[in-house]
Amino acid sequence: MIYTCTLNPSVDYIVHVDELRLGELNRAVKTLTFPGGKGINVSRVLKRLGVESTALGFIGGFTGSFIIEQLQNENIACDFVEVPGNTRINVKLKSGTETEINGQGPMMEPEHEEALIKKLQALTENDVVVLAGSVPSSLSPDVYEKIIDEAKKAKAKVVVDTSGPVLKQLLARKPFLAKPNHKELAELFETSFHSQDEIMVYGRRLAELGVENVIVSMAGNGAFYFNKEITLFAEAPKGTVKNSVGAGDSMVAGFLAAYTSGKSLEEAFAYSVASGSATAFSEDLCTKDYVEQLIREVNVICF
Ligand SMILES: Nc1ncnc2c1ncn2[C@@H]1O[C@H](COP(=O)(O)OP(=O)(O)OP(=O)(O)O)[C@@H](O)[C@H]1O
Ligand SMILES: O=P(O)(O)OC[C@@]1(O)O[C@H](CO)[C@@H](O)[C@@H]1O
């Protein structure tokens, strides 16, 4: 079973305005509401690609009820720890450019964290745990490490999609898959990139540090894949971006869906890129039909 763990889920409120004027009343021309948070997005895309998963994490209040209802409508298994307070609302403003305002999320107590860790004690070596998204400040700063330690005890695979100092700490535990975008990779090595050659150098370094599979996404410029032996590159398919929120999460889901169904690394990487782009070109997350249409445009180059 694949478990996704979202410590700080969100209701994503997508607001389209023709022209955003700060300090004035703006009227939306379109609004959309989705269950969000990186792990939840991974679960939703996995389902669309025909792979079951269980969504774990913390949930609370009327916003939390909305998320559970939506996931149940999509037949996605949930096993959240309920917390007092409301799950956050993340505002995604679309007006030519994309501006995001992510909320803080509810306060959690140590007993909530313990309840989540307890759920993970049932993991087995056939399981995959996807740790995706930011860590709310009320949780212990090493909560992801505690989760990884449970997964490692069970010999389950760990997938990491987070950023900043948390990502740095987690890499030492040698996850099965990490998917930083190119900016997160630069931040990790306290550098900045001026070319794709530089991205390749640092992506390989991540694989050498012990991350089994590394995908570095570069939005419209496609992505790299690295392991200790090989480097792959794929350009992104061309299309009109409608909502890139969740494109990175879709890559994680696409890779896992293909990999766990026995596809080769090259095929899993191509599926990952097609899934990211299919989401970027959709209002909501990608559909399987769209991924399989776009994969015909993905050429994987092996270095
Ligand atoms: N403009 C675009 N054109 C085509 N494909 C895109 C575009 N933007 C994103 N994608 C697809 O989505 C993948 C992930 O994008 P990106 O690098 O922005 O991830 P991310 O920063 O983790 O995204 P997010 O945090 O918004 O989920 C890319 O590798 C690509 O396949
Ligand atoms: O604040 P975090 O946890 O870093 O990111 C949360 C978030 O921006 O990530 C998802 C897209 O990847 C959205 O569904 C959600 O709103």
Q: How many domain units?
A: 1
- How many helical elements? 10
Describe the main β-sheet briefly: 11 strands, mixed
What top-tier CATH class fits best? Answer: Alpha Beta
Q: Give every kind of bound small molecule, once each.
A: adenosine-5'-triphosphate, 1-O-phosphono-beta-D-fructofuranose
Rounded Rg: 18 Å
Question: Which structural class fits the helix and strand makeup?
Answer: alpha/beta
Low-pLDDT stretches? none
Strand content: 15-25%
User: What fold name stands as the CATH topology?
Assistant: UDP-N-acetylmuramoyl-L-alanine:D-glutamate ligase
CATH superfamily: Ribokinase
What is the total tally of β strands? 15
Q: What's the overall geometry?
A: globular
User: What is the typical, i.e. mean, pLDDT?
Assistant: 95
Tell me the span between the first and last alpha carbons: 33 Å
- Series of H and E elements: EEEHEHEEEEHEHEHEHHEEEHHHE
CATH second-level architecture: 3-Layer(aba) Sandwich
Work out the helicity level: 25-40%
Describe the structure.
- With 303 residues, the protein is an alpha/beta fold.
- It has a single domain, classed as UDP-N-acetylmuramoyl-L-alanine:D-glutamate ligase, CATH 3.40.1190.20.
- The protein has helices at residues 38-48, 61-73, 110-120, 143-153, 164-171, 182-188, 196-208, 247-260, 265-280, 288-294, and strands at 2-6, 10-16, 30-36, 53-59, 77-78, 81-82, 88-95, 97-101, 128-132, 157-161, 177-178, 213-217, 223-226, 231-234, 300-302.
- α1 (38-48) packs across α8, α8 (247-260) runs antiparallel to α9 (265-280) and α9 crosses α10.
- The protein is globular.
- Bound molecules: adenosine-5'-triphosphate (ATP) and 1-O-phosphono-beta-D-fructofuranose (F1X).
- The site of adenosine-5'-triphosphate has 20 residues, from α8 and α9.
